[in-house]
Amino acid sequence: MSKPIPTDRSESVFEDYKHEYDAKQALIEANRCLYCSDAPCTQACPTHIDVPEFIRKIATGNLKGSARTIFEANILGMSCARVCPVEVLCVGDCVYNQMGVPPIQIGKLQRHATDRAYEQGWRFFEAGAPTGKSVGLIGAGPASLAAAHELRRLGHACTVYEKRPVIGGLNTTGIAPYKMRADRSVQEAQWVLGIGGVQLETGVEVGKDLTLAELEKKHDAVFVGVGLGPDTRLGVPGEDLPGVHGAVELIERLKLGKLELSGVKSALVVGGGNTAIDGVRELAGLGVPSVTLAYRGAEAQMPGYRHEWLAAREVGVAGAFHAVPIGFEGNARVERVRLVRTDAQKKPIAGSEFTLDAQLVLIAIGQSTLGQMLSGLSGIGVQNGSVVTDAAGATGRKGWFAGGDCRNGGKEVVNAAAEGKAAAQAIHRHLGGKDA
Ligand SMILES: Cc1cc2nc3c(=O)[nH]c(=O)nc-3n(C[C@H](O)[C@H](O)[C@H](O)COP(=O)(O)OP(=O)(O)OC[C@H]3O[C@@H](n4cnc5c(N)ncnc54)[C@H](O)[C@@H]3O)c2cc1C
Ligand code: SF4
Prior knowledge:
binds flavin-adenine dinucleotide, 5-stranded parallel beta sheet, Fumarate Reductase Iron-sulfur Protein, Chain B, domain 2, single chain, 15% strand, FAD/NAD(P)-binding domain, binds iron/sulfur cluster, alpha/beta, globular
């Protein structure tokens, strides 16, 4: 069981930043689609949803069929419709872009169809005839959820082990609330597991509460979907002061509960990636009067999506570029950040120190990797902290598969969904099933 999450969470103040279509708007947008036969949008989608097909079904009033087309390729299609960076995926490859015409809003159309499925309680898939085989899945994030759903369709028994009390992984605990709130993600996870026959064990940390050897003994195959680990630290003086947090850790707190921000007049977020950009937008949205993002390179070098950063600027967030913290100061809690300017190579410039006031600091310079947890198992390769697999997700140890962030080093929900499903099909072949 997933633990119920409180209703009065900090994230609840955020409105949906992409307005949903009503039936008429969806129909008009669907009818703009050119239904390209080579469909670059479908190729750009990691789960290869047949985009022209689902849009054609919306245009002909067949919403149920449209939702089925989406879920057939991607069982997490409801959340992906909200959280996918469509500007660099399907929408970014719409042929209209080359004609100077606004691209088709694929995410919004996908949301229109999948939301109706949830509202109406439509279910499309059943568990397959039992094979007598069982698979253990570590983690209840998007990768494991997609894998478990596909494995159940193929008839294999599944047990999902999740160390947290809530399910959905970072889709529940990390996604910016103006894209999707935590309760939606939990609802989706429950809907996916609603196929039946998945045993869910929350509060069980594999490697601690259950050893890898015990897991291997209990199951015919194992899927590793553990995602990434805790926030990376800067390693500078004062980082342990109250008020200095890892970004993913603090975002989880605002998503699942109430964040106490009284007395925070200025906040600093360190980093230039998407988590840093989410962090500044979230703090500004929660009413922190002055929010600054500090990045060690130039604005144009930020690794986060440009469109997300521009949206952050619109809510009044400031940028401090070519700047990196060298220490945090304060008595009972952080009050000031000492920074140093950096040169074109992002190296500190001697004598260029300056300070910024901040009663709250988020360090968003990346997350650690968890691949090392498998290092005791012979045959499993770990490179730069990520689990090494073949294209389908098989590791070098018989019966062990992996997918999602722990395999790809940290991408998007849609990549985790694609890798989880592909690994489930590889597991099926391994267990002697017919070609999936
Ligand atoms: C702040 C933030 C914002 C993001 N925003 C977006 C976005 O807007 N759009 C998007 O597409 N993607 C976004 N992502 C990325 C996306 O959330 C991930 O790519 C995706 O969730 C990866 O899925 P996963 O299943 O591989 O891992 P996770 O979602 O991390 O799930 C792994 C699960 O495994 C559990 N686990 C770990 N170790 C163990 C263990 N030993 N035993 C049992 N359970 C364990 C964890 O508790 C977790 O629930 C964001 C990520 C972050 C950090
Ligand atoms: S899953 Fe994401 S990338 Fe794929 S078609 Fe839908 S919105 Fe686009």
